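Supplementary notes (optional reading)

For those who missed the lab, this is the record we used. Protein: ABC transporter substrate-binding protein. Length: 529 residues.
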Amino acid sequence: MQHTPRRSRRRLGIAAGTLVAALALVGCAGGGSGSDDAEQELIIGSQMASLPSLDTGAITLAGYEGQRLIGNLVYEGLTKRDVSDPNAAAGVGPALAESWEISEDGLTYTFSLQQGVTFHDGTDFDADAVVYNINRYTDENDPHYDAAVGTYYAVLNYVDSVEAIDDSTVAFTLTEPFAFFLADLYNVYFASPTSLDEDGNEGQAKNPVGTGPFVFDELTENQSISFTRNDDYWGDAAELDRITVELIPDPAARTAALRSGRVDWIEAAQPDDLASLEDAGFVATGNAFDWEWSWQLFTDVAPFDDIRVRQAMNYAIDREAIADDLLHGTAVPAYQFFAEASLYYDEADNIYSYDPDKAEALLAEAGYADGLDITVGYITAGSGSMQAKAMNEALQAQLSEVGINVTLDPVDFSGMYAALGEGNTGWNAANQAFSLEQPSSWSWSMLCGTNYFGYCNEEFDALHAEALVTSDDEERAALLTEAGHLQTEDAGWMYVVNDTAPRAMASYVKGFEQPKSWWIDFTGVSIEK
């Protein structure tokens, strides 16, 4: 099938261990069955409040949870997150590309594609399909070009051209060396050219056609989305016949759904519920990973333009009480920019401890001896938000002890980014959570002139820029560790905790070992009743 001309030129400029419960022979009646002749359906209670567009890059609007529970089921990239070792940070593994070679100058990446891959509609996945999709993301003259979808693929800003060498070989030429090119291709998803030609972008947004291990089945608006196993999958076929994701943003409702058997698995399990769930025979899992839950301080305006106030915030909070008492060990206290599970973590940068006397002294020195009032916007539910209401209210109470009076302004996931994008939020800080494992995406959160929060350290930016073009892993890691040291010294954020992503599931859910990542591979998961 002819997809497009075989060459496209770019036209745009973008340690807590696993918590395991005793496996009791107890399990509420859920959606799955492990008998040979019964359908194995896994029903997941998600914290998402709404479903995103189902078109490739637009799925990222639902955060990592959207990618984990929707995008990675239907679509694939040339690479993927390698989570095969649950005790190691996620690496880079082959996906639709079985291997690759990098030129000595770091500018050309030549990919050998997997053989025998087809899209869910039967269209061949080949080098022409790669060029077709990249052209769609980068060429304004392409009939299926969508600036909104392409916006989510900043990695493609480094691509000068892509060329199909033969049916199973494709070469990307970059404008400059980019050390994270392979890592960042993981969610540059590929859609069927036939589907796009026949149904356009709107069709892809409603009926996604990829190459993934599951096929889109049905969607009930703002309630659920279902997928069936791709029996023609090029890799190891999934054991599950069906996955259904139900939208249950309220954490108590998710727990109730698990207890009643309405769902088999819940995301972001409430820490208060884990002990009783385990007593009832459910399984709880968690694993510390590179996930930072913090308050991003607006450092370009008062009061957080004064480093002493930012430092006071970090000395005023009791992270251990949040992690151990409130969250019952499902989080790890964060004393610096990087999580302990990060490749760039240095224990020497754990410079903030619980010291309310020091916090009060710093506030007095900064001219706030009588205290100050601030407003903080926070995401109520969604990807990685943890127990946002309870955590923010606990921080509110702790900060009040040193004279910092906090007004909390709850918003939903999309509302947070809409407010930040428009500016004039009326906030002094924002609470959201994200992973720092993808350094190329840091611009929106901390680089001078491009982040939402006014933070600027030119030395940090220089180290970050050097890391992006440093091919040696150890040298690159050292540069980013030093950048993190500077951000920690600056107290650019109020560092609170790092997540372990607690989940709970019925004991008949088998084959899942939680990785040190937000990424999950569902192909080995099964239902055994």
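If you only remember one thing from this example: The radius of gyration is 23 Å.
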